[in-house]
Amino acid sequence: MEDVAALVEMSRDPALRQWASTAVDNDAEGARWVQAQQRGWAAGDRFGFAVLETQPGAVREQLVGNVVLKEVTSNKPAAEVGYWTGAHARGRGVAPRALEALTSWAFDTFEADGLERLELLHQVDNLASCRVAQKSRYDFDSVLPAAPPSFPRDGHLHIRRTDA
What we know:
By secondary structure, the protein is α+β, with helices and mostly antiparallel strands. It has helices at about 5-10, 15-20, 25-45, 95-110, 125-135; strands spanning about 45-55, 60-70, 80-85, 115-125, 140-145, 155-160. It starts with a helix and ends with a strand.
């Protein structure tokens, strides 16, 4: 909850709003977003992580993004990953490093439960997400048709398998 104000500030970024499925416009919405992340952990089917960065001389770490593992079900071979970064963190390799950490954690944690692959979806015109997927060894698989309203444009499906 201590990152709610930073979450609200980062959510004002037009580029983030373009790609994100949920906007966080005020502290109450930010608190609800954090609570939804907590409910996912409690249910054991959605695991969101704040991506934090230590600033020289700072008392506490700064929020720079988020990664999430979702749709996790025992004996289901696939789950989905997602991520976002704040404007101040883009172009510095934050997203690929965070995605790699999430990927390793997901396979380490859920491979024994049947997890074999992770799926990353992004809109076809989100070139930055495509680069993150490629850098993180998520291979391009296919183009998916648009599914408005949450996915208004065609998308790319990238896949990473446990043996990648």
